[in-house]
Amino acid sequence: MKLFRQLVNWIDVRIGVGELVEKELTGYLLPRNINAWYSLGSILLTAFAIQVVTGILLLVYYVPDADKAFASVTAIMNNVPFGWLVRLLHAVGSNMMVLALLLHMLSVLWMGSYKRPRELNWLSGFILFNLVTGACLTGYLLPWSQLSFWATTVATNSVGAIPVVGGHLVEFLRGGKLVGAPTLGRFFALHVAVIPLIIGALVGAHLFLLQRIGVSSPPFGLDDTTNRWQGDVFRYESHPGGIPFVPNYLLQDLTSIFVYLACFLAVVFFDPYLFFPKEAFSPANPYLTPAHIKPEWYFLPNYQTLKIFPSELLGLAVQGVAMTLLALLPFLDRGGERHPLKRPLFRIGYVGGILLWLGLMVWGHYS
Amino acid sequence: MDNAGRRKFLVTLLAGGGAAAAAAAAWPLYRYLAPAGGGSAAAVVVIPENEVNEGQAKFFQYAGSAAVLVRKRGGELIALSAVCTHLGCIVQWVNEKQEFLCPCHAGLYSAEGAVLSGPPPKPLAPIPFKVAGGTIRVGEVA
Ligand code: HEM
Ligand code: FES
Question: What is the ipTM of this complex?
Answer without folding.
Answer: 0.85
